[in-house]
C-alpha cells in the first residue's frame, strides 16, 4: 500500500471565493477520505454549487489550497483539463450532449481526451450502461429518454473517464418523484463499491443510506461537519437542525 | 412567342456564361459573406468593448442601407478616393459585406443557442476549450444555423441580379440586353427565369441533403428535415426584403 493511501483523497484548506464584491465562499475546509461519501446540505444560495465548481476548477478559488491526491491543484489553472479528467461531475440538469446518443455521450471523452479506439470506447459504454441499469438505451438520444434515464447516462458518462472522485450537484432535484429512486440507487451502489463522492442533495434517505460524512453549509461557510452516525443521532448544530426540520416537513 | 427561341437562348453561349457568372458571384460572395459573418460573430463573443463598437457600426451601415445602394456606392464612389475596382470585384465586395451583416446574426444566435451547461459538461470531462467547441458546440450550432443559412444562400442567388446595374454581365443583364436588341422580351426573360429556377432548386436540394446528413438520428427520426415541396410552399409564403 502506498503511503499516499492513508491521506485523504481530497483536502480542501480554507478556500475563499468572491464574485465581484460578493463573498460566496468564506474559508471553507473539508477533508474527504478515500472510498467515502460526503453529503452536503444547506439552503439555496449558500454556495454548495460554487464549492463543487471550485473543486474541479470550473471556478478558480481566490485563495486557499485544494490538495487532490496529495497535490495542490488550486494554484494552476493550466492543469485544469488534466485535473477534471480525474474528477467526474453530474449536474442538476443532466447536460447530456443533445446531438449524441446515450452510448456516444459516454464514448466522446474517452475517445477525444484519452484516445481510446471507437470499439474500445463502445465496449466501455456498454459496460457502463449495464452498470446504471439501462443497457437497452444505448442508441437512444437524450430527448427520447426520461429524466431518470438521462441522469443515469450522465453518471455513466462521468464514470467513463475512470475518475477518482465524483461530484454530484443536486442530481435528483430536477426529477419527477417517481424517478428519484432509480438515480439514488445507482449512486448508492457506486458509493458502496468504493467510489469517493461528494453529493449535494436534500434527499436525507440517501444520506442515511450512503453517507459517511455530512456537511451543512450556510452563507458560504461550513458550519457543521459530522459523521453520519452523529448527525442522525441528533447531536447536531442547532441551525442545521432547524434546516433539517424545514426540509423534512 | 417562340418556344424554339427560348431553347435557343437557353443553350446559347451568352446565356450560359451569364448563368455561370451569376453562380460565381453568388458562391464567391457567400464564401466571403460567411467568413465576414463568422469574424463578426466571434468578435461579438469576445467581451472587448472597442471591437464590439466596430462590429456594431458595420452592422448598422450594412443593414441600414439598401444593397443596391451599397453596390453602386462601392463601384462609383470608391474610385474618387483612388480605389479603382473592376465591376465584378465591386459586386463581390458589396454582396459579401452585406451578406456578412446578416450571417453574423445567424451564426451568433446559433452559438448562443448551445447553452453554457453543455460547454461546462464538456469541460468537466477534461476536454479543452477547443475540443468542446469542435465536438460539442459547433455540431449543435451547425444544425441550428443551417436552415436560416440556406435561406440566405438562396436569397443571395436572387440578390446577385442587382449587380446588373454596374454592368456585370450576369444572367439578368444578358437577358435584358438580348431582349432589347431583338425585342424578344418573353423568350429572353423566360430563358433567364428557367436558369434562376434551376439554380435555386439545386441550392434547395443541396440544403436538404446537408440538413439530412447533419441529422444525428438519420433515418429513424420522426421529424425529418422539411421535404422539398414544403420548402417551396414555405418560400412562396415568406417574403424577405433586402
Ligand atoms: N458566476 C456567478 N457570478 C455571480 N454570482 C454567482 C455566480 N455563481 C453563483 N453566484 C452566486 O453565489 C451564490 C451561491 O450560489 P451557489 O453556489 O449556486 O449556491 P447553492 O448551490 O448553494 O444554491 C448565489 O447568491 C449566486 O447568486
Ligand atoms: Mg446549487
UniProtKB/TrEMBL annotation, chain A:
Membrane topology, as annotated: Peripheral membrane protein
Presence of keyword Manganese: no
CDD domains according to UniProt: ABC_HisP_GlnQ
The UniProt record lists the keyword ATP-binding: yes
SUPFAM superfamilies: P-loop containing nucleoside triphosphate hydrolases
Keywords: Amino-acid transport, ATP-binding, Cell membrane, Membrane, Nucleotide-binding, Transport
MF term (GO), any: ATP binding
Subcellular location, principal: membrane
Subcellular localization, as worded in the UniProt entry: Cell membrane
GO CC term, one of those recorded: plasma membrane
Domain ABC transporter: 10-244
Family listed: Belongs to the ABC transporter superfamily.
Protein name per its UniProtKB record: Amino acid ABC transporter ATP-binding protein
Organism: Mesorhizobium zhangyense
TrEMBL record, chain B:
TM segment ranges: 20-43, 55-75, 188-210
Keyword ATP-binding attached: no
Annotated ABC transmembrane type-1 domain residues: 19-207
Pfam families cross-referenced by the UniProt entry: BPD_transp_1
Bilayer topology term: Multi-pass membrane protein
GO MF term (any one): transmembrane transporter activity
A GO biological-process term: amino acid transport
Keywords assigned by UniProt, alphabetized: Amino-acid transport, Cell membrane, Membrane, Transmembrane, Transmembrane helix, Transport
Main location: membrane
SUPFAM superfamilies to which the protein is assigned, alphabetical: MetI-like
InterPro entries: AA_ABC_transptr_permease_3TM, ArtM/GltK/GlnP/TcyL/YhdX-like, MetI-like, MetI-like_sf
Localization annotation: Cell inner membrane; Cell membrane
Gene Ontology terms: cellular component: ATP-binding cassette (ABC) transporter complex
Record-stated family: Belongs to the binding-protein-dependent transport system permease family. HisMQ subfamily.
PANTHER family: L-CYSTINE TRANSPORT SYSTEM PERMEASE PROTEIN TCYL, MEMBRANE COMPONENT OF AMINO ACID ABC TRANSPORTER
NCBIfam families: HEQRo_perm_3TM (TIGR01726)
Protein name, entry field: Amino acid ABC transporter permease
Annotated organism of origin: Mesorhizobium zhangyense
